[in-house]
Amino acid sequence: MTAALSSAPPRRILLAIDLRSRSDRASDRAVQLAAQWQAALHVVHVLPQADDGWPMAPLATCDGPTPSAAVPAERQLRRDFGETAVVHVVEGDPATAILAVAVEQQCELIVLGASDAPPAGRLGRVAEALLRRSPASLLVVKQRARAAYGKLLVGTDFTAESRHGLLAAAEWFPAARLALLHVLDIPYRSLWLDAGHGEELARMEHATMQAFVAATPLDGRRLAKTWVEHGHPEFVLRDCALEQEMDLVVISAFRRGLAFHLLVGGTARRVVPAAPCDVLLVRAPS
């Protein structure tokens, strides 16, 4: 899956679908993006098994999957997507099966809907597993795809990985309005910093933001807004996305290694359920 290292738009998209009523949101967005990027669209459905993070349509009346369970699922998917997608109906653990199809078909982006089953503020088990394990970028769809993404909020921590996320956002969505946000989370900030040091830190942060943007090859693309805020990233991103009426939040993560697991296990896992809009996790190069 070396193509995922590029900031070019994905050439192969995998839609993971559970055939329930809300899955049409992810379906519509995947179809829209495939058309926008002229990308091949693959659709995967994993046959029912017990997993509270990946609800399944009641395709079989007996306990567990049966040999014929794939037939109605495949029939429905082919009816819904026609010739616009390649359909895969598989059995097994949902996250593992989805990742296997993604790797086999060399998909650079996995699209799935946000589950309403987990408690508020938490991810379903399948979405969390994909966040942690997927070598491809991941788009979690929450809103209806009424139009192409037009207003993007890109989170940055000034690392090379977040620069890759910004470049991907700019190249994947060339007509969209981009805003760049850095969130600095300092525990007990009021106890550590007096007014003078707080102002000095703010100046340093804004200077760092300007230097980060200047060093990012955006090919003349101007950012609509850049700003620095203090607080917990998931809450600040949520509030800024609501205030600015954003369509999509973009965050980045390492592809592999301890740093990847620490980042995804922390910030990304909290941001995705907190965001009021769709969330794109851009997988950065190793």
Question: What's the structural blueprint in terms of helices and strands?
Answer:
Layout (H helix, E strand, L loop, with lengths): L11 E5 L6 H15 L2 E7 L23 H12 L4 E5 L3 H11 L4 E5 L11 H9 L3 E5 L9 E6 L3 H13 L4 E8 L4 H4 L2 H20 L10 E6 L2 H12 L3 E6 L3 H18 L3 E6 L3
Parallel strand pairs: 1-2, 1-4, 2-3, 4-5, 6-7, 6-9, 7-8, 9-10
Antiparallel strand pairs: 5-10
Helix pairs in contact: 8-9
Q: Can you tell me the CATH topology of the largest domain?
A: Rossmann fold
Return the domain count.
Answer: 2
State which percent range the strand residues make up.
15-25%
Contiguous helical run count: 9
Q: Briefly note the structural class of the backbone.
A: alpha/beta
Helix and strand run: EHEHEHEHEEHEHHEHEHE
In the CATH hierarchy, what is the architecture of the largest domain at level 2?
A: 3-Layer(aba) Sandwich
Please give the alpha-carbon distance between the first and last residues. Answer: 12 Å
Helix content: 25-40%
How can the largest sheet be summarized? 10 strands, mixed
Mass-distribution shape = elongated
**Total strand segments:** 10
What is the gyration radius calculated from CA atoms?
20 Å
Main-sheet strand order equals 3-2-1-4-5-10-9-6-7-8
Q: What is the average of the pLDDT values? A: 82
CATH superfamily of the largest domain: HUPs
Are there runs of 5+ residues with pLDDT below 50, and where? 1-5, 256-265
List the quaternary state of the chains: single chain
CATH class of the largest domain: Alpha Beta
